[in-house]
């Protein structure tokens, strides 16, 4: 039997769920701000520092191309780091909350089944 909407609201207001949200926000907000700033730097340099971005590094590879490729690299690094962070910090908290909800649902089912058995005897 699934948990009731009231149970989900109770969990949402719990200290454990607050800790989960805090842990997630502690990663997401700074990482998002850093990436947006990094991307804005790339866009601004491309728009206003054309001479700098046109500096050739090796052959036809210039600073602008290197910065553009580093945008992809940084995206994959952030995704990898988030997966690692989530596995270590977020998933254990979420699993505990899920087990609590699931256990409560199982207890409710067992209580209902016991009540039903008692009323038929």
Layout of helices and strands:
Layout: H1 5-12, H2 15-48, H3 50-53, E1 56-58, E2 61-62, H4 63-120
Helix pairs in contact: 2-4
**Percent of residues in beta strands?**
under 5%
The arrangement of helices and strands along the chain is HHHEEH
Oligomer: single chain
Number of self-contained structural domains: 1
Count of helical regions:
4
Give the averaged pLDDT, no decimals.
Answer: 87
Overall SS class: mainly alpha
Radius of gyration: 25 Å
CA distance, first residue to last residue: 23 Å
Q: How would you sum up the global shape?
A: elongated
* Sheet having the most strands: 2 strands, antiparallel
Describe it.
- The two termini are 23 Å apart.
- Helix 2 (15-48) runs antiparallel to helix 4 (63-120).
- By secondary structure, this protein is mainly alpha-helical.
- It has one domain (5-113).
- The mean pLDDT is 87.
- The longest helix is centred in the last third of the chain and has 58 residues, at 63-120.
- The protein has helices spanning 5-12, 15-48, 50-53, 63-120, and strands at residues 56-58, 61-62.
- It is elongated and about 65 Å long.
- It has a two-stranded antiparallel sheet with strand order 1-2.
- The protein has four helices and two strands; from the N terminus they run αααββα.
- A hairpin with a 2-residue loop joins strand 1 and strand 2 (61-62).
- It holds the Pfam family DUF485.
- The chain crosses the membrane at residues 27-49, 61-83.
- Keywords: Membrane, Transmembrane, Transmembrane helix.
């Amino acid at each position: 039997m699934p948990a009731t909407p009231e149970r989900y609201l109770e969990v949402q207001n719990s200290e454990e769920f607050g800790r989960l949200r805090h842990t997630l926000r502690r990663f997401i907000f700074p990482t998002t701000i850093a990436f947006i700033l990094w991307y804005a730097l790339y866009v601004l340099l491309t728009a206003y520092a054309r001479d700098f971005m046109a500096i050739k590094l090796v052959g036809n590879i210039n600073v602008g191309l290197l910065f553009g490729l580093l945008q992809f690299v940084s995206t994959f690094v952030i995704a990898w780091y988030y997966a690692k962070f989530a596995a270590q910090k977020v998933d254990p908290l979420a699993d505990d909350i899920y087990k609590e909800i699931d256990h409560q649902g199982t207890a409710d089912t067992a209580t209902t089944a016991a009540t039903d058995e008692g009323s038929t005897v």
